[in-house]
Amino acid sequence: MACTSCWQLLGLLCRKKNLGTEEEMYHTPLRRTLTTFQLVLMGLGAMIGAGLYVLTGVEAKEVTGPAIVISYALAGIAAMLSALCYVEFACRIPRTGSAYTFTYISLGELWAFLIGWNLILEYSIAGASVASSFIGYLDFLCGNALSNFIINTLLRGKLWTVSFLAPYPNIFAALFVILTTLAIICGAKVSAWINGLFMAINAVIISIIIILGFQKSDIRNWQDYGGFVPRGPESVLAGAATLFFSYVGFDAIAVANEETVDPRKSIPRATFISVVIATVVYVLCSAVLTLMVPYPELDVSSAFANAFVVTGVKWAQWAVGVGALCAMFTSVLMSMYCLPRSIYAMATDGLLFSCLGEVNESTGVPVVATLFAMTLVVLLTLFFSLSELVEFLSIGVLLGYMFVSVAVIILRYQPDSLLVEESVTLEMHTISQDHPSASTDRGTTPSQSSRSKDEERLLGDPYLGVPGTLREEFRGVPVLKELTRFRPGLVVNTCLGISFVLFLCAVAILEFGLQQLLSGEWWAVSLLVITLSGGLLSFLVIPLHKQNEASGNYYRVDFVPLLPGLSILCDMMLVLQLKPVTWLRFLIWVVIGLLIYALYGFRHSKEGRRGEQERVREEDGHQDQPSPSYGSIEESNRDKSLATTQGSDL
User: Where are the alpha helices (DSSP H) in 311-422?
Assistant: First the structure.
């Protein structure tokens, strides 16, 4: 009894979101006004901010040195792999919510809640950290007038001494977040217009940085001071893990799904263009910075502005300051745009409080969710410094991207499309229509000779041709024959889970046992060989199965499961670079989220209520006959066909 109850509870926790018909998916109370060009600017506005003007100098001086160029390229590759997975989901599912919605459809409710909860963390910290950077840059240009006012006038010279808090409340950053939120409340079209204006200014400033920077560059800065990779290869990976923060924002394009005029065309184009442009900008600007000034001499608070002062182009520091302010403004704007949409998506599904899902009719904006998001970001901005926020952000982002890549593989090898098309039922129906010989006409020839080979195979193997089952060319292999007995998708999901765990172990061995591996210790080498070979063998079973060739003219990721698998592997490597204290803070956030889900979301879930209503109707005898599972469909159709055939033969 206890075991049955546990399985029932697990089934409730893993219930999946039902999207309904194509028309229902496109229906939204939000307004579809955004074009491809506006989406590109939104993606760039979200990505090119503090990552360029602040984080580049910090990582180059303290972590990577000139090798920051490679770190940015690696982070860009990881971001592109994740972006490809986002694009397929965003095209198939024209709904807001990004990774949360994608996970809800493919993995289930509990996983979706955790991903959505992490998205709230991601956008909140992104908005707070960049708002702090914005005020920091403005304070630098004003000669520290803002910070001196807070410290000397408001705090009377008494700084906070708590280790995990900022030294003083960043009141001006909080006011900046509030002003940005007012622009968001005016609607998506207004937000996109403001973002485009500031991005145009930023583009001019970036061009000045690159052109003047290369003119003032000195290749000796890459040769002296320890060379191009002064702190070793491990510093390049560590830098890439943190610099992945700079690419947080391409998912803003997917978040805008419900407000895009033609999402299935605009989303993939805008995502590709924005990620490529951002990667090129980051690589060129980081190269310029480390060529202009030796990396040990960089000013972490204003790296680009100080670099131009050192090289004698003093007027350029003001141009850099203006560009930094514009870039960070658009970054905060996009974070404050995405955060309430993520909260809105969870609230409309019943997993967060229903008031957060209300949309203002005049502006088409979830105002209550936006004000709640503003409050959360203001609190983070007031009490935490940039250094405390950045790494905390990266873990939520990487886990979200990892789950989207997993979800792409799972959905590709599921027997049902998003619109729940019973492919086997349709095939059986087609056969019965094509072979009317199995009728009650006794004067006809026995139907056995008229049955096609496809019908014979289908009657003998009901899962033949169903997505998620072994492909036909491998069914004759003795070693693989046992795999045909399992329901569609089960073997793929199991192998994906096994390979995920084994690859994670292998990456952990490479990360934490590299010295033992290099010294040739037998236990470390054996563990690495076992985990890598086991993970690879499990992963290679997946492409032996038939994919779901869903209908529809939209972008689909090529080379599945290879590309999503590489994305998962890159995210694993980057996650393991983060500090243990980051994991501790993240676990605290997850526990808070699980409490909210247990006390509210689980009981108020719309999917849960829908299932309960169907159960009640079934018990009352007023519900229509439920759709059978794949196994019952095949058995029922096969029995009917055999019975008809036998009747005809008689």
Answer: 316-348, 367-383, 386-412
